[in-house]
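Hi C.,

You asked whether I'd gotten around to modeling the 131-residue construct. I have! Everything is below, sequence then structure, no commentary in between.
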Amino acid sequence: MRTLTVLATFAVVLALTPLVHAAEISSPAIFGSYDQDRAECVIYNGGTGNLSVTIKILTESGTTQAQRNCGTVPPGEFCAWSVGINFGVAYACTATAGTIATLRGALVIQQQVPDGFGGTYTFGIRSAPLR
């Protein structure tokens, strides 16, 4: 009898617990050029509520190059993460959140370019949207 009560209680708790599913958007793996220096993943919350978002930058073989837990991203706000990358390798970006209906994003491959004054600036050479 005791076992039956425990199993029934367990079944009721599982039935009443809401299921939480994470959704994900991602970019294709892209390659900029042999001069590429950085990969930057940028997401935007275009909704009316807060979103808890995690972004990852992946290599072409699927290994995680960098990961950032953005925490709670308010409506109308951005979260971005940039990481140094290797030449000759393609990269992709994923963003995981509770819902992706209003989440937008892009992966940008960048390179350092001389600015003409002895310094450099970062120049985006290729990008792909997260879908």
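If it helps when you're writing up: The chain has a mean pLDDT of 88.

Thanks,
B.
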